[in-house]
Amino acid sequence: MTRQPSTNPWTVLGEVTRSAADPGQPTVQFDAVERALTHVIDHQVFTILDVDMKMGDLGRVYTNIAEAYPVKGRKTMGPTPWGVWVLGGKQSYLGRTRADICWAFHDYELIESLGCGAVINLLVMYGGTLLGTVNMLHEEGYYTDDDLDLGMPFVALLAPVLLAQRKLNTGTPHGPEGGE
Q1: Which of 92, 122, 141, 152 has the most Cβ atoms closer than 10 angstroms to its Cβ?
Q2: Selection from 143, 164, 158, 161 nearest residue 36 by Cα
Q3: What are 72-113's pLDDT values in tens digits?
Q4: Domains along the chain?
Q5: Distance from C-alpha of 100 to C-alpha of 131, rounded to nearest angstrom
Q6: In degrees rounded to 5, what are phi and psi of residue 178?
Q7: Integer distance in angstroms from the first to the last C-alpha of the chain?
Q8: How far apart are CA 99 and CA 96, in angstroms?
């Protein structure tokens, strides 16, 4: 059975789009997407990763639980089955169980210690280029296939934010024109 969002998704989608005009970017937009997805899907842990396939690295740019998942520098992506599926295959990931978490993440013990046993990783894409992932953790069995579809309109609004951050940080967008 599909859960019903606690808030009309169109209402919170409007709030996210309006937040793009506010000063204090990118944090304002990241906060708006997290708030919206709290109402529409829900999560206990929420992070956003900037993924640069050209450079072969990623970095956490937002977190709601800095004690466990701080925002800090970039790290090189190592080969993992999750990386092949999500980063290489450009496929969102739904892990319903603790076994799925163990398969996907080396820090599964930390995830379990936070009371989480389900994950969804949604892709931030632009022009065929993977820019990042939005990652949500919740109790085991919480997420469904419907959550993947429900989250995508919100996550798509992060593409210009991540592109703008790359341009500010490096002088080049590393998007479709910059290659992947």
Answers
A1: 122
A2: 158
A3: 888 887 788 999 999 999 999 999 999 999 999 999 999 999
A4: 9-170 (3.30.450.40)
A5: 24
A6: -80, -10
A7: 39
A8: 8
